[in-house]
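Recall from the previous chapter that SMILES is a line notation for molecules. Here it describes S-adenosylmethionine.
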Amino acid sequence: MKPAPYPAKLHSLPSNISSIPIEKRRIIFDLIQQHDLRDCLEAGFANGVSSIVIASATKGSLLTFDHPVAQHNTPSIEQLIEQFGQTNITPQYCADYAWEFGKLVKQGRTFDFIFIDASHLFLNTVAGIALADRLLRRNGYLVLDDISWIPTVSSPITFEEVRKYNGYVNEEEWRSAPVGEAFDCLLKNSRQYRCDQRERMAVCQKLSSRFLV
Ligand SMILES: C[S@@+](CC[C@H](N)C(=O)[O-])C[C@H]1O[C@@H](n2cnc3c(N)ncnc32)[C@H](O)[C@@H]1O
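With both inputs in hand, we obtain:
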């Protein structure tokens, strides 16, 4: 079956907020459509823009996590869900998405598509990738946003804010690309994943289930 084109209604999603830009939205939409990815999981919904894109693309559903601070965003994810009629999204507020991923692992849950666009720090991302690997089905896709994001160059948030929400971060990490470092260490050369880089995102297909060997 031919994948559906990027829907016109998604052009009215807000663009002047902290969300992935249109090029990335299209890549994610096409990937989900093309491979008919149904059980979707997301870390970091913020206002819910990427969530609406994922949920519009899939014939299944999306479970998505963010900090309670996201409740005060304008628009909120709940408002976008209502505006776009995307009732296949379940947003959950939590202290840390990796902890929630751990619970899903213990429940035996599995997914076809996982998008990580949350803390952007090394330790969080390493934990997120390791747990996402346990949650991802064979042939499923893990997408990491901002693999070339360097906090000191492009961060709208301060060192203090990052420490408040994410705990430990070191000075050297703050000057490097932490998501990219985690990607390089765990996924880039893994024989269990086929990865390519598109618009500063890592798009990784899981080929087999034995991680890190
Ligand atoms: C760049 S924004 C996400 C943007 C969204 N994916 C989009 O494109 O529309 C990153 C979000 O991650 C959340 N976040 C950061 N660290 C987190 C953590 N450890 N657990 C859960 N959410 C986290 C922040 O509150 C923020 O809303």
